[in-house]
Amino acid sequence: MRDKTAMQELDSEHLKWRGSVRAIVDATIDKVWGMVSQTKRLPEWMPMVERCTDLAGEEGQVGYVRLVSGFMFPQEDGERSWIKEKLISIDPSSHSYAYKMEASNVGLDGSVNKLKLVDYGGQGSSTLVVWSFEIDPLEGVSQDGIIDFLGFVYKSSIARIGNAIQAGATLA
């Protein structure tokens, strides 16, 4: 027989809202990984991120914590959004990682974002970027509405990766 706490944890796990987006980036998997795996480059390909600051740990290591700020999600008071994210998994050999949103002023605490890259196309000239996410249900928000909004934000970000890579190559 399960105790009440175990049942609540099980129930809350089943109540997660999930979504994913995917798109092709016209760049090699190594170039895309070099862009998306570096915190300092986040503002280059996430249109609403102004700043990404190291808070704890070492980038690229599980446990690393960063603070992302900008206008990712509209705030009623016009203030910038901020999200404290913790790296919970990373595997450079499979070009994947996951961050958990630990605290924020956007209501997405506990959400998990996962990014996975797949070599796509004959000579490795393209990369499939898969961005999946799961969030706890939000009061007063429709599940479809928030899944669509996050999907739009993340798909827009993926679309900018190729341009950011080309801009970086032009500057080099």
List strands and helices in order, with pairings.
Blueprint: H1 4-14, E1 17-25, H2 29-36, H3 42-45, E2 49-56, E3 65-70, E4 81-91, E5 96-104, E6 112-120, E7 126-135, H4 143-171
Antiparallel strand pairs: 1-7, 2-3, 3-4, 4-5, 5-6, 6-7
Helix pairs in contact: 2-4
Structure characterization notes:
- The protein is an alpha+beta fold.
- The chain has a single domain (17-171), classed as Alpha-D-Glucose-1,6-Bisphosphate, Chain A, domain 4.
- It is 30% helix and 36% strand.
- It is built from four helices and seven strands; from the N terminus they run αβααββββββα.
- Helix 2 (29-36) packs across helix 4 (143-171).
- The longest helix is centred in the last third of the chain and has 29 residues, at 143-171.
Quick recap of the structure?
With about 170 residues, the protein is an alpha+beta fold.
Helix-and-strand structural type: alpha+beta
- Spans of at least 5 consecutive residues whose pLDDT stays below 50 are 1-12
Order of helices and strands: HEHHEEEEEEH
- Tally the helices: 4
Descriptors for this entry?
172 residues, alpha+beta, Alpha-D-Glucose-1,6-Bisphosphate, Chain A, domain 4, 7-stranded antiparallel β-sheet, 4 helices, 7 strands, 30% helix, globular, disordered N terminus, Polyketide_cyclase/dehydratase
